[in-house]
Each structure stands twice: as structure tokens, then as C-alpha cells.
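Quiz preparation item.
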């Protein structure tokens, strides 16, 4: 392959494999057969390793450079590391180490195949997940695991939460309700519990359905992003963050007055649409524990950005 010589298969069955140069006038060929009929191993019986064909037959777009071959060759680049080379890195590897020019898509497929060889396919991982959870609970007393599948025994990767981890089909109301129900079984429901999230309707409804006593607060950072995107008023953010972090109602009222004078629609949004009790610590009905943002979750999301493509067990190993 590195010499850009292509070959074609002359004969292939369960006991014999014969390949020859793509040029019928070239003498290069290889013949391999089973060691013994009952064996699964082949041995090379004959090999003529010199090409006598024209240089015009060389092709950098080697047809034997399939994504499977590329993936098998690039496996060492991913062993013992979380990320490894990207698709462009695989293209470079194929060009410099194998002498093959491959497309970005083939490099991407080769990279995915390498991941599968190292960590297993989603299907393989799914089948060993119950055993993995069993050992996880056995070796780590107190850990609680749950597996729930649909009528066809399937589930997919999905959303994450900082106290517990769930693999669901998508971020929707049913998924959040299921996840929070499992969480409630572990931590219970009390008016001292604070649940901070963005203002996604699916999360809001799921929390109100599952937790009767806990209090739900809005992530101040997400509220700030909504203000900037919706009202185009980044210059008011200083007053907003001062209001978020104010401990006294007097201070909060002063900052809100400033916001109201400059951007009345923003003040109305914060009071009526978001609700003071969702983002301002003084009006929060429970104990917010000085948690104003979900930045910890965002950090975990960034940490797992590459691992999300892993199979289930490999993903949980990273977690």
C-alpha cells in the first residue's frame, strides 16, 4: 500500500486466498492457505514481492485503503488516551505512514472504526451494561444504577446531570421525568433541596411533576444570555450581575431600578417572565446555597465532549 501498488483478489474462500497485482502483466502475487483444514489461521505459501508493472499503475487513492484497514492501522494512536487524532490527523497518518490519499469522510469512518476496536460497538456495550452496573454497585456500596429500555430493548446517548448520570434518548419531558424520578429515589424530596437549571420547559415541567417540596431556580448565566440575545443590551449586564449577587433587598431594588430606567422591557422580563424568585437569592423561596449558575454542569459537558461518541460502557468509564 505504501508503494501505491493496488492488487485484486483472484481467489478467496474459507481455505485459500490468492491476490495479484492489478496489472495482469505484473508478476507480483501472493498465495495463502490454511495451516490445516480445521485451523482458522492462514500461512503464506507463495509470495513474489517484486513489481514489474508500469509506474502509471500506481494510485495514491488506493482501493485497498478501506476505512477498516485505516482504522486497524491507526488504533495505537487512540490507546491510553481520551481523544487521539481527529479526522484530519487520520488523513495525515494515512498519507505519511501508508502512502494513501484518503477523503475526510473515509478518515472519519476509520477513526470511528478504531474507537470501536478499542472500546467496543454500542451494541456490544449495551449487552454487557447490566454486568458492568452489577460490578459497579458491588465494588462501590451506595451507588445506584438503573436501566430502562423501550419495547424493542433500545436506548441512546443523551443528557447528563452533575449529581447523577443518565443515558436517555433525547432531552425531552419524558426523559427528564424518568431521570428525576430515579434521582428522587436516591436523594429524596425536601424543601431544603435546590434544583438549578436553564429555563427549558421540559425541565421545568418535569421538576414540578416529580419534586413537590424542592425549589427550582433559574441559572443566572442562561438568563443573562437570553437578555443579551433578546434585547441586545449587553451594557446593562453589570447592573444585572450586581442584582443577581445582592444579599439585601434594598441593594437589589436599587439595581433593578437602574435596569428599569434604562431598559424597561428587560426589567419586565426579569420580574414577570422569569420571576424574581427564580434568579434573585433574596426572593428565592428556599435555600439556594449560593449557587447562581450551572457552570459545573457546563464544565462536565466540556470534559465529556469527546467521550459522548463512545459506547455506553466506555462513556461510563470516563465518567
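Solution:
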Amino acid at each position: 500500500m505504501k508503494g501505491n501498488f493496488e492488487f485484486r483478489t483472484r481467489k478467496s474462500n474459507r481455505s485459500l486466498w490468492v491476490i495479484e497485482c492489478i496489472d495482469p502483466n505484473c508478476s507480483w502475487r501472493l498465495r495463502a492457505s490454511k495451516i490445516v483444514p480445521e485451523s482458522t489461521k492462514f500461512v503464506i505459501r507463495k509470495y513474489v514481492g517484486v513489481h514489474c508493472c508500469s509506474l502509471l499503475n500506481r494510485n495514491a487513492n488506493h482501493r485497498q485503503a478501506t476505512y477498516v484497514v485505516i482504522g486497524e492501522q491507526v488504533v495505537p494512536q487512540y490507546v491510553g488516551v481520551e481523544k487521539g487524532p481527529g479526522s484530519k490527523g487520520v488523513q495525515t497518518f494515512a498519507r505519511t505512514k501508508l502512502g494513501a490519499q484518503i477523503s475526510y469522510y473515509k478518515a472519519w469512518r476509520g477513526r470511528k472504526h478504531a474507537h470501536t476496536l478499542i472500546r467496543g460497538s454500542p451494541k456490544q456495550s449495551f449487552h454487557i451494561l447490566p454486568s458492568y452496573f452489577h460490578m459497579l454497585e458491588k465494588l462501590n456500596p451506595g451507588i445506584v444504577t438503573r436501566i430502562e429500555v423501550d419495547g424493542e430493548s433500545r436506548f441512546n446517548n443523551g443528557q447528563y446531570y452533575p449529581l447523577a448520570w443518565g443515558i436517555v434518548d433525547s432531552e425531552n419531558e419524558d426523559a427528564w421525568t424518568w431521570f428525576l424520578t430515579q434521582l428522587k429515589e436516591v436523594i429524596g424530596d425536601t424543601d431544603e433541596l435546590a434544583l438549578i437549571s436553564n429555563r427549558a420547559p421540559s425541565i421545568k415541567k418535569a421538576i414540578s411533576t416529580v419534586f413537590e417540596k424542592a425549589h427550582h431556580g433559574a441559572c443566572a448565566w442562561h438568563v443573562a444570555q437570553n437578555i443579551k440575545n433578546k434585547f441586545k443590551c449587553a451594557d446593562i449586564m453589570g447592573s444585572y450581575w450586581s442584582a443577581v449577587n445582592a444579599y439585601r433587598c434594598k441593594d437589589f431594588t436599587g439595581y433593578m431600578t437602574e435596569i428599569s430606567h434604562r431598559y424597561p422591557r428587560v426589567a419586565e422580563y426579569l420580574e414577570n417572565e422569569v420571576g424574581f424568585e427564580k434568579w434573585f437569592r433574596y426572593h428565592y423561596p428556599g435555600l439556594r446555597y449560593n449557587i447562581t449558575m450551572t457552570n459545573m454542569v457546563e464544565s462536565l459537558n466540556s470534559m465529556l465532549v469527546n467521550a459522548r461518541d463512545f459506547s455506553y460502557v466506555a462513556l461510563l468509564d470516563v465518567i
